[in-house]
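Cross-check.
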Amino acid sequence: MHAGEPESPGADGAADRSPGRAALIADKIDALITREAARAGGRAPTYRELAERINRIAGHDVISKDTIRNLHHGVTQKGQTPNPTVETLDWLGRGFGIRQGAAYFLDDARTAAVDEQLERLEQLGELRQALGNNDVVNLVQRASGLSDGSLHMLLALADRLKSLEEGAADQGGPGAQGER
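Predicted model, tokenized:
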């Protein structure tokens, strides 16, 4: 075992076999898939795509689409609780860009820290995209120097306008996003 690696409860390198642990792992996989889908415009990666990505990173086959599906659902096709090895969880995490993948799935404190980092990266991406829009940059420049009260009113107005545009887009009516 290398320094910094989570300890495995079993001598065979398997993670905790309890249904509770399987559900926690499944929830974490679901959150990662949901986050990736949001970045990809709503399309979640398939289990096959995830397995191919992970195996490409590893340089050989280390995980199957069935293993990912079983872990994501928290139950095997035979109705048993999955019992992944630490190595399997490590590769699964790496497939989502998490270097010490097993720790993400087995250590709730590590999960929280990684999730916080991922959230910050998403916010930076959104900011970078917004700053690429000249109208947004102009609005920020004009808002600079406003009082806190005025800034709060401007934010409330922006939220309301976004809500109205999203509602119009959902109904396909005028004022839908993208129409000017």
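Confidence is low (pLDDT under 50) at residues 1-15, 176-180. The helical segments are 19-39, 47-58, 65-73, 86-95, 101-106, 108-131, 134-143, 148-171. Passed to J.P. for a second look.
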